[in-house]
Structures are given as C-alpha cells and as structure tokens.
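<backbone_tokenisation>
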Amino acid sequence: MAKLWQGVTAADTASAADAFNSSIGFDGRMYREDITGSMAHAQMLAKCGIITHTEAGQLVDGLQGILNDLGSGALQLDPNAEDIHMFVEEVLTARIGDVGKKLHTARSRNDQVALDMRMYLRSEIDEIASLAKELAAAVIACAEENKAAILPGYTHLQRAQPVTFGHHLMAYVSMLLRDLDRLGDCRRRLNVSPIGACALAGTTYGTDRVFEAGLLGFDGVTANSMDSVSDRDFCLELLSDLSILMMHLSRFAEELVLWSSWEFRFVRLSDAYTTGSSIMPQKKNPDMAELVRGKTGRVYGALMALLATMKSLPLAYNKDMQEDKEWLFDACDTAKACLNIFTGMISTMTVLPDNMLHAAQTGFINATDYADYLVSKGLPFRAAYKVAGETVALCTEKGFVLETLPLEDYRSVCELTDETVYDAVDLQKCVARRVSEGGASVASVEKQIALAKEALGLA
C-alpha cells in the first residue's frame, strides 16, 4: 500500500516495521471523532478561502458517506492502514478523487490526533460521569432505606463507635461526588482545540482556529502550537481521576466482600452478582466485587505507564505518545464496566440490619459514650476514659455488655454512675446524639442525602 508521507523517503518499510508502527488496531475506535473533525476542518478551509465552498461540500459529503458506512458495517477498517487518519483520507480520495487530497491542508496528523483524543475523551468523561451518578443514586437509595439501621463503625477494622448503615454508605457518596467534580474539572481543561497547530509551528495559511473549534463544541483553542501537539496532561489527569475513582470502588468492594461473609453477614449479595465454587457447594463468592478490586490495578498501571512514557520526551511530538491510547481506552472501558457492575450489586443486595445491630451490641462501641457520660458527671475525660476501659473489662469478665451490666457493677468501678447510665449507653440514643455537622445521627444522614440529591440533580 502506498504511503501518503512518501517523498524524501521511498517509504519502503519492512512489513514487520509497518505492523509495529501501525495504530489502526486501536485508534480505529476514534473514527467518529476523526471524521467529524475533518468535516469541521473542510468547512473552516472554505470559510477562509483556502478551498472553495464547492470543494468543501464534496469533502463533507464524502466524509459523511464514510461515517455512515463505517457505522452500518458496509465499510470495514483496513487493518493494513497505518492509522485512522490515513485510512479515512485514502478512502475519501478513492471515492471523490483529487479533491480529497486537499483535506489535509493546514493540519498535521500531530494536531489531528490530539484533536481526536480530546473529542473522544470528552465523550468518555460524559459517559463515565453518567455511570458514576447512577451508582451514587443507587447508594443514596440504599442509604435512605437504612438511615436508622445501627451497625458498628470501625477503625483499624476493630469495632469502634455506633453509626448507621445509611451514614456509612453516604461516606461513599461523598467520594463519588468528589470524583464527579474531578471529572468535570478534567473535561473543562481538555475542552480546548489543538487543531491548527499543525506539526508543531502552526501554518502559513490564514486559518480560523476559533471558528473550527466552535464547530466542534470546544470552549477555545490552545495557546501554543508546540504545547498543542505534545501535551498529554489531559490524558494523565483523566487517568489520575479514574485511579482515584477506582480506589473508591475498590474500598467499597472490599467492604462488600467483608459484609457478605459469614463472619459479618451484614448484607447478602444477589445471585446475579455472585458465583459458586466448582468443588464446595456451600460457597457463594463475591466475584464481581473482587474483580472490581482487582481491576483497580489496571487503571493504576495505565497512569504509571503514561507518566513513565512522558517524563523524558523533548518537545514537540514523538512517536512514543502513540502509546497513550491503549492505556486510556482500557482504563475508560474498565472504569465504565466497574461502575455499571457496582450499581447492579448495590441495587440488588439485601441488607441484614438485625445482624448489624447484634454486632453493634456485642462490640462495646458505646464505651466512648459512657466516658462522655462520666465527664458530664464532673470526671476529667482521661480519668473517665480509664473508668470506661475498666468497666468494659468487667463486662467481658462477667459476660455482660454495657447495656446489661448491673448498676452495682458499674458503681464498683465508679461511684459517680447512677441509673441514668442506661440511657447514656443505649445504642439508638448514642447515634441520635451525634448531632454535629456531618455526624451519624438520622437527622444528619437525612441532611447528607438531601445535599447529595441536590448536587446530583435528583432533588
């Protein structure tokens, strides 16, 4: 196949080199962006008098035909093509003749691929954000149903203080809201057009970059032609954002694995999102949650790989940068798949509040509340802390919990304790007293839910 860049070189490359150099196998997924960008470029060339309006019409019609045929399957990508840009130009020229060769005026593949990537990732961000909102809505719905369900909150994976399941879930909603903010910031920063920077130095043609950017939905144009073609900050930023998002999903997945185990039994995952064992018939494995946890490393790897690729590249474009696409595409695909699966898991899981309450009642997670009670009686907090610890040890020795320990046993440790202690250590009341902003009380959880719904446009 003749190469469009043949000139100073005979372009007589080895077949192995052609295969090594080719990117059509992965950048072909950007055919819509490539063709849409070329349509806008043809319109800009005509507006600026670089080509005629008749020629621009031929180019746009020809490009639309290619877009339609690729979409319908009437035209297949040529695996022997060097990249998506060359493929489209070759097919266009074959269909409409020499006027097709005018399309590449005042641009380079360097700014063309940067344009395609920005357009493609813009759409990917929109889709990922939509899926993240769906997951957040599912978590909010579950939190609302369980806003008063008591369970132990943990630190160091040790039972710590009483919270509600709704409060615990809303912590993940807070994470997802930050993820959405980051994705929005990334989209805003990438939404400037690099087309017109050409190879690295701009062009001698009198082009209108702002007009072309406007046709493609960009907010503006890049400021420096060298930076335009060598910048992949927007790719790194997206990979960073996706890494944080996946970290949040992985933490959530880890808790689902724990909560669905026989040791916890706080939730039961739907059969639709679990598997069985090939040898142990009693098993119900949380494979989907585990896969989300495992796939997080793929996204981290993509970020590290692109950082390593970019760290030593001189300005401007280098072929190394072709390596950005497969990592980005895989990271986006992975994040979308994990978000979709997670929404299904949350929407279909069964919450087991009685088991949560039992765990809360047997974990002495109201010990801090007892210490606070003693402080209200005039004992310094450090002294109250010691008394509470000694009282828990007494409960353990005698087989009681704080709610059932006889008053005389309380008073054997600290005479300041009276019958009002049982109100102080009641789990429901312990949670209800967490009235500080963002705390675990039902009223606070309701406020968190309302704010989250407002932020997501669900109110």
User: Anything to note?
Assistant: Residues 109-145 form the longest helix (37 residues).
